[in-house]
Design goal:
Structural class: alpha+beta
Strand content: 5-15%
Shape: globular
Number of strands: 4
């Protein structure tokens, strides 16, 4: 899971611009395979799960409902049963994508200089701590 193809996945709280949990996954693996690990990062279950189409599976939707979470995941186009999404709520995903962009402003994260997973994760966590510092000092 180390190297230049590693991806980081993040969990967010009510403020979708501040990550509260970050995990690494192999670059060649599908994002939904890391769902269970990402949900274990939290000390409480989220009220709403905002995710992209890559997380559209019956197992993830059922797990979210079992946790008392409302899954706001658009369905894949090839699905027989299409689930509706609350569009005003789902537009908050744009803020999450902007947070990933802010993390990638750290050149070391954007270019993946680190060849080991632990150092890549460490610098990703440092970049997210910088985002938290900006939030804490602004309020």
């Amino acid at each position: 899971m180390a190297g230049f193809t590693s991806e980081y996945l993040a969990g967010f709280n009510r403020n979708p611009q501040l990550p509260i949990g970050i995990i690494l996954s192999p670059g060649e693996a599908h994002d939904s395979t890391a769902y269970a690990d990402l949900m274990e990062e939290r000390d409480s279950d989220p009220g709403i799960l905002l995710a992209d189409r890559g997380y559209d599976s019956d197992a993830i939707r059922q797990d979210a409902r079992d946790r008392g979470t409302i899954p706001e995941i658009p369905t894949k186009r090839n699905r027989r049963i299409q689930h509706s999404v609350d569009r005003p709520l789902y537009t908050l995903r744009n803020r999450i994508e902007r947070c990933f962009n802010k993390l990638k402003n750290s050149r070391r994260i954007a270019t993946r200089y680190d060849q080991t997973a632990s150092s890549f994760l460490g610098f990703t966590l440092l970049a997210s701590i910088r985002l938290w510092f900006r939030f804490v000092h602004a309020s």
